[in-house]
Write a structure and sequence with these properties.
The protein has 583 residues and is an alpha+beta fold. The chain has three domains: 226 residues, no CATH class; 167 residues, no CATH class; 41 residues, no CATH class. The longest helix is centred in the middle third of the chain and has 29 residues.
């Protein structure tokens, strides 16, 4: 196939997914999808569910997970456990143990058929995932910080047909709506999610009509093979060696002890092997990770390092990820998992960064904030006489790298979803944001410092409500690399009835009763620093102090830079703080 045709088809497949993403966000009811873009769309192979293409605006953590999900649906159909697909069908599933993440990430899968001599034949699967604000469970929003079994986290759905030959099954819908909060509002998200897949079907049909099934099939195989070879070429640039690192989850929300992720990465030939031997055993609380999420977290960590390689199954074929059986990174039923996709996956990616920065120090960043800042608030708004579930995610600092400082208020490691505008949240829910600002001083010191997190306070205006949050990096800040300092850890404070408290598990709690006037205050982590802080350009330190990022005392203690009365660098005093170095 000529290169031009191949490039056009590859871009066309991605564009199909991009249009599904756009349709999903534009039509969705919930701000977490419509504003924050907590969703993803993709195309998957008919024979095994392997990823063909994913939208550029979709969450990277869903890359590997949806591939596993499609594979499980195909397997269950072959085994006769799930009804076979027909044109117009849409399956719904959120079971974490069948290629999922947590229960709030609900996946729709639509079979795509093409006409042939013997009638319609299955060509591929169109699939998307959207974060629903609530799927039932112990607390509004589903983030049950103290859950000890998955049933406490919400409604778990195996693959079932929500749409049959284009018509919604009202009985299945009634079961769903009877088990979730503010059920009347979910129909808007359901129709948006199904409509996005219909958009994908129309656009893919246009590509089939233009190029034909045979040409498109050949192109998909070529695209996959070339992505695999590009990844192998990147791997060959590394020395043949083994690198080790560890990352820690604050606690599981039940037992107040950190969970250890031990990772070794070995380059051998054209392959990278990832081994989690030595990681903590399964935990009581909801910070277990299912295999699909663990697999996907490794993939997204590698993709962060090599952003130019297209996303498809071939991209990750050279990665040998050993299933971490017997650890909290391979959760089996009935282990709770509400924190797996949003938090544990980011610690896994962090461990990948800490390993591979040793192999490619000029290309890998220090650790990012590594938490989605999951915050849920649910209650009844007396002004509207209706229930609500508010779900918010927040950004943090990215790690510094060999070329520049880390990004401030960047999205979480696992995706490109963003914080919904506070004006939208205040319009939808009975809350007022008293503060939403940059968190000064939170970036880890370094030759290139980490980016800064955010600092916000949200106040309940009316009615009673319950707050829950599952965050991380509250016990340990994001680590710096190559001599860089750690970023500031996550902080949560509850201001209720004139008193201020800190949760026992620092960044995890659930069912906290709030009354009007009570506030929740959150400071998200800064990114880790890269390189020796005392090698940082003193003028840049002075600039950061002038902007209010650091105090004068912090500049002296962290970077060895003294400032004069005018805010400029005091060369003599700085030379004394940095012995043997130029000011």
């Amino acid at each position: 196939m000529d290169a031009l045709t191949l490039a056009v088809i590859q871009a066309g497949l991605v564009q199909v997914c991009n249009e599904m993403d756009l349709a999903f966000s534009r039509a969705a009811f919930s701000p977490v999808i419509a504003e924050a873009d907590d969703r993803s769309d993709g195309i998957y192979a008919a024979e095994d569910g392997a990823l063909i293409a994913q939208g550029e605006g979709g969450l990277p953590v869903f890359v590997g997970a949806m591939q596993h999900s499609a594979g499980h649906i195909i397997r269950l159909i072959r085994e006769g456990a799930v009804a076979p697909p027909e044109p117009g069908d849409v399956y719904i599933v959120n079971d974490p143990y069948l290629g999922g993440t947590h229960l709030m990430d609900v996946r729709f899968a639509r079979p795509f058929f093409v006409d042939g001599p013997g009638g319609p034949s299955l060509f591929c699967w169109l699939q998307n995932t959207g974060h629903w604000p609530d799927t039932g469970g112990m607390v509004p929003g589903g983030f049950s910080a103290h859950a000890t079994e998955v049933e406490q986290e919400g409604l778990r759905l195996p693959p079932v047909k929500l749409f049959k030959r284009g018509e919604m099954d009202r009985e299945i819908l009634s079961i769903i709506q009877s088990n979730i909060r503010v059920a009347d509002q979910r129909i808007g998200d359901i129709k948006a999610q199904a409509a996005a897949l219909l958009v994908g079907e129309r656009r893919l049909s246009e590509m089939i009509a233009r190029y034909g099934v045979a040409t498109l099939t050949d192109a998909i195989a070529l695209i996959r093979d070339r992505a695999a070879e590009r990844m192998r070429a990147e791997i060959r640039r590394m020395p043949e060696a083994t690198w080790r690192a560890e990352a820690f989850v604050d606690s599981d929300g039940v037992v107040d002890e950190p969970l250890r992720i031990a990772l070794s990465v070995t380059r051998r030939g054209d392959t990278l092997r990832f081994d989690f031997t030595g990681s903590s055993p399964p935990c009581q609380g909801p910070m277990n990770s299912v295999w699909a999420t663990t697999f996907s977290a490794v993939c997204l960590g590698v993709k962060h390092i090599f952003p130019d390689i297209p996303i498809n199954a071939g991209t990750f074929a050279p990665l040998d990820i050993i299933r971490p059986e017997g650890t909290f990174l391979d959760a089996r039923y009935p282990r709770p998992v509400s924190g797996c996709a949003a938090e544990v996956s980011q610690r896994i990616a962090e461990a990948v960064f800490l390993c591979l920065v040793q192999a490619l120090p000029d290309e890998v960043t220090a650790a990012p904030a590594g938490t989605s800042g999951n915050f849920a608030l649910g209650g009844v708004d007396p002004a509207r006489g209706a229930g609500y579930v508010m779900y918010q995610i927040t950004g943090g600092g990215y790690g510094g790298n060999a070329r520049e400082d880390g990004l401030t208020n960047g999205c979480s490691t696992i995706g490109i979803s963003k914080t919904a505008p506070v004006e939208v949240m205040e319009q939808y829910y009975p809350v007022l944001f008293r503060r939403f600002a940059l968190r000064e001083g939170s970036g880890g010191a370094g030759l290139h410092r980490g980016g800064f997190g955010v600092h916000y306070e949200v106040e309940l205006l009316r009615g009673d409500a319950r707050a829950s949050f599952v965050m991380d990096h509250g016990r340990f800040g994001p680590p710096g690399v190559l001599g860089g300092g750690d970023g500031a850890p996550n902080e949560v404070r509850l201001h209720r009835g004139g008193t201020t408290t800190i949760p026992q598990h620092l960044s995890k709690d659930q069912g906290i009763a709030l009354a009007p006037g009570d506030r929740v205050e959150v400071k998200t982590p800064g990114g880790g620093g890269y390189g020796d802080p005392f090698a940082r350009d003193a003028a840049l330190v002075a600039r950061d102090v002038g902007r209010g990022y650091y105090t004068r005392d912090e500049a002296a203690a962290l970077f060895g830079v003294a400032l004069g009365p005018d805010g400029g660098v005091d060369a003599a005093a700085t030379a004394a703080l940095r012995p043997g170095r130029a000011a």
